[in-house]
From TrEMBL:
Name of the protein in question: UDP-glucose 6-dehydrogenase
UniProt cross-references to InterPro entries, sorted A to Z: 6-PGluconate_DH-like_C_sf, NAD(P)-bd_dom_sf, UDP-Glc/GDP-Man, UDP-Glc/GDP-Man_DH_C, UDP-Glc/GDP-Man_DH_C_sf, UDP-Glc/GDP-Man_DH_dimer, UDP-Glc/GDP-Man_DH_N, UDPglc_DH_euk
Pathway(s) where this gene product acts: Nucleotide-sugar biosynthesis; UDP-alpha-D-glucuronate biosynthesis; UDP-alpha-D-glucuronate from UDP-alpha-D-glucose: step 1/1
Pfam families per the UniProt record, alphabetical: UDPG_MGDP_dh, UDPG_MGDP_dh_C, UDPG_MGDP_dh_N
Catalytic activity: UDP-alpha-D-glucose + 2 NAD(+) + H2O = UDP-alpha-D-glucuronate + 2 NADH + 3 H(+)
Organism expressing this protein natively: Flavobacterium procerum
Enzyme Commission designation: 1.1.1.22
Protein family: Belongs to the UDP-glucose/GDP-mannose dehydrogenase family.
Record's keyword terms, sorted: NAD, Oxidoreductase
Enzyme class: oxidoreductase
Residue ranges of domain UDP-glucose/GDP-mannose dehydrogenase C-terminal in the record: 333-448
PANTHER family according to UniProt: UDP-GLUCOSE 6-DEHYDROGENASE, UDP-GLUCOSE DEHYDROGENASE/UDP-MANNAC DEHYDROGENASE
Length: 463
C-alpha cells in the first residue's frame, strides 16, 4: 500500500516539525496538519516563515521549502481526515488535573476526541498512527472507539512514538537514532507497518527502522524518557554531595562518562530538568505501575521526580541563604526562562518554580530570555495558582536585553543554557549591580574563575 495523503491532528511542538520534515523528504506525499487552535494555524501559515509559532533551529527553512507544495496547515479537520489514508494523532496528553489519577495519569480526553472524530468522518479504511506519547495499551481503547462508533470501515492502529528533543527537533528528525513502529502481528497489521516504514525509508536507513508489537512500542517511549530523566536526577543527586565534599560534579561526570558502559551524554548537572515530557511521562509510568499493584516499581521511578523537585527547591533556597537570608524587595535577574536553550517552550521549566519560591520571599524578578515574552512568563506563574495574576504581574518584569535585566540587581541566576550568556561583557554587568554581586549558575555555563576575578561571588551547581 502506497501512502499519498497524510493528515496529522495537532500542530504543536511534535506535529508541526515532524510533518514539516516528512513533507520535505516525501514530495510525493501530501501532508496536511490540522488543529482546533485557529491562531496556531494562522501562525503556521504566516507568509514570513520566521513567524511560525514554534522556534526550532532550521525549522523555518524546512517549512518555507514544503509549505504550499505538499505541506498544508488547516483548521478543516474533517476534510483532512476524510482525504488521508494515514492519520497521525499528535495532540497533547498532559497530566490529569482532575478526577481519578489527578496529578499522575495522562489525560486522554484529546486522544478520545480525535478517535471519535476519525470514526465519524472516515468512509474508507484508514491507518491511525499514535504519535502522541500514550500509556501502554491505549491503542486498545482507540481501536474500541473506532470499531464501535465508525462507519464499518477497517482501521489499523500503529504506535510510532516521537523521540525528538526540542531545540534540536529538525536535526533529530533528519537523523534519528531510530524510528519505532509498533503494530498488530496480523497480515493487515503488517501491511500497515510496511506502509509507514516506506514513508520513513525515504530518508532513514532501513536498519534504523525498528518494528515491534504495539505494546512494546507504547511502553518504550515512556521507558526512554524515564531512563533519560533518571540520568539527570542521578547526576543532580551527586551534585549536592559534591557541594558538601569538595568534589566537582563536572569532573565526576567526565570521569564516569568516559566509561563506555555509562556514556557521556545527559550527565549535565542542572537546576533540574523541565519540559513537557519527562515529569508527565514518569508520573504516567508511576500511575500505570500502581494500577497493576506494582508499588516498588512505582516508588522506584517516582524518586526521579522527587529528586528533581528537590534540586529546583535547593537552588532557590541557596539564593535566599546566600543573600543573607532575605531577598525581600531585592532584584534578582533571571537569564533564561525556557526549559532548555534553542526553544521558546517554557512548559515545566525550572525557572517557573525557582521564581515562584523567590516571589514567596518577596523578591522582584527581572527576566531576560531571547525567545520568551513577558506575557508567557506571567502566564506560567499564574498556572501555578500560588497568588493572584495581579501579584505575579507586579513581581516579575521581562527585559529586551540581559544588561537591562541585570542593572541594579543583587544577584543573577542562570536558568537556561542559552549560548549567548557565556559571551556577555560580565564586567559591564558587574559594574551595574549591587555589591556584593552574586551569580548563581544553574547550568554551569559560565567561567567561574573569570567571574571571580571580576569580583562576583559565583556559585555553580555541584562544586
Ligand atoms: P502541543 O500542546 O504543542 O500540541 C498539541 C496540539 O494539539 C495543540 O496545538 C492543540 O490545539 C491540538 N489539539 C488538541 N486536541 C485536538 C483535537 N481534538 N483536534 C485538533 N487539534 C487538537 O503538544 P506537543 O508538545 O506537540 O506534544 C504532543 C504529543 O507528543 C504529546 O503526547 C507529547 O507527550 C508527545 N511528545 C512531545 C515531545 C516534545 O518534545 N514536545 C516529544 C515527543 C513526544
Ligand atoms: C525529551 C527527550 O530527550 C526526547 O527524546 C523526548 O522525545 C521528549 O522529551 P526534551 O524535553 O525536548 O526531550 O529535551 P531534553 O533535551 O531531553 O531536556 C529535558 C530537560 O532536561 C531540559 O530542562 C534540560 O535542560 C535538562 N537536562 C538535559 C539536564 O538538566 N541535563 C542534561 O544532561 C540533559
Amino acid at each position: 500500500m502506497k501512502i499519498t495523503k497524510i493528515c496529522c491532528i495537532g500542530a504543536g511542538y511534535v506535529g508541526g516539525p515532524t510533518m514539516a520534515v516528512i513533507a520535505q523528504k516525501c514530495p510525493h506525499i501530501q501532508v496536511t496538519v490540522v488543529d482546533l487552535n485557529e491562531q496556531r494555524i494562522k501562525d503556521w501559515n504566516d507568509p514570513n516563515t520566521e513567524n511560525i509559532p514554534i522556534y526550532e533551529p532550521g525549522l523555518s527553512s524546512v517549512v518555507a521549502e514544503a509549505r504550499g507544495r505538499n505541506l498544508f496547515f488547516s483548521t478543516e479537520v474533517d476534510k483532512a481526515i476524510d482525504e488521508a489514508e494515514m492519520i497521525f494523532i499528535s495532540v497533547n496528553t498532559p497530566t490529569k488535573t482532575y478526577g481519578k489519577g489527578k496529578g499522575m495519569a495522562a489525560d486522554l480526553k484529546y486522544i478520545e476526541l480525535c478517535a471519535r472524530q476519525i470514526a465519524r468522518v472516515a468512509k474508507q479504511n484508514k491507518i491511525v498512527v499514535e504519535k502522541s506519547t500514550l500509556p501502554v495499551r491505549t491503542a486498545e481503547a482507540i481501536k474500541s472507539i473506532l470499531d464501535n462508533t465508525g462507519n464499518g470501515v477497517q482501521f489499523q492502529i500503529l504506535s510510532n512514538p516521537e523521540f525528538l528533543a526540542e531545540g534540536t527537533a529538525v536535526t533529530d528528525l533528519l537523523n534519528p537514532d531510530r524510528i519505532l513502529i509498533g503494530g498488530d502481528t496480523t497480515p493487515e497489521g503488517e501491511t500497515a507497518i510496511k506502509a509507514l516504514v516506506d514513508v520513513y525509508a525515504n530518508w532513514v536507513a532501513e536498519e534504523k527502522i525498528l518494528t515491534t508489537n504495539v505494546w512494546s512500542s507504547e511502553l518504550s517511549k515512556l521507558t526512554a524518557n524515564a531512563f533519560l530523566a533518571q540520568r539527570i536526577s542521578s547526576i543532580n543527586a551527586m551534585s549536592e554531595l559534591c557541594e558538601k565534599t569538595g568534589a566537582d560534579v563536572n569532573e565526576v561526570a567526565k570521569a564516569i562518562g568516559m566509561d563506555s558502559r555509562i556514556g557521556s551524554k545527559f550527565l549535565k548537572a542542572s537546576v533540574g530538568f523541565g519540559g513537557s515530557c519527562f515529569q508527565k511521562d514518569i508520573l504516567n509510568l508511576v500511575y500505570i505501575a500502581k494500577s497493576y499493584g506494582l508499588n516498588e516499581v512505582a516508588d522506584y521511578w517516582e524518586q526521579v521526580i522527587v529528586m528533581n523537585d528537590h534540586q529546583k527547591r535547593r537552588f532557590s533556597n541557596k539564593i535566599v541563604q546566600t543573600l543573607y537570608n532575605t531577598v525581600a524587595d531585592k532584584k534578582i535577574a533571571f537569564l533564561g526562562w525556557a526549559f532548555k536553550k534553542d526553544t521558546n517552550d517554557t512548559r515545566e521549566s525550572a525557572a517557573i518554580y525557582v521564581a515562584d519560591d523567590l516571589i514567596n520571599e518577596q523578591a522582584k524578578i527581572a527576566v531576560y530570555d531571547p525567545k520568551v515574552s513577558e506575557h508567557k512568563i506571567v502566564n506560567d506563574l499564574d498556572y501555578l495558582e500560588t497568588r493572584s495574576g495581579q501579584d505575579n504581574k507586579s513581581a516579575v518584569v521581562a527585559f529586551e536585553n540581559a544588561y537591562d535585566a541585570c542593572k541594579d540587581a543583587h544577584a543573577v541566576a542562570i536558568l537556561t543554557e542559552w549560548d549567548e550568556f557565556a559571551s556577555y561583557d560580565w564586567k559591564k554587568i558587574y559594574d551595574n549591580m549591587h555589591k556584593p554581586a552574586f551569580v548563581f549558575d544553574g547550568r554551569n555555563i559560565l567561567n567561574a574563575k573569570e567571574l571571580e576575578e571580576i569580583g562576583f561571588v559565583y556559585q555553580g551547581i555541584g562544586s
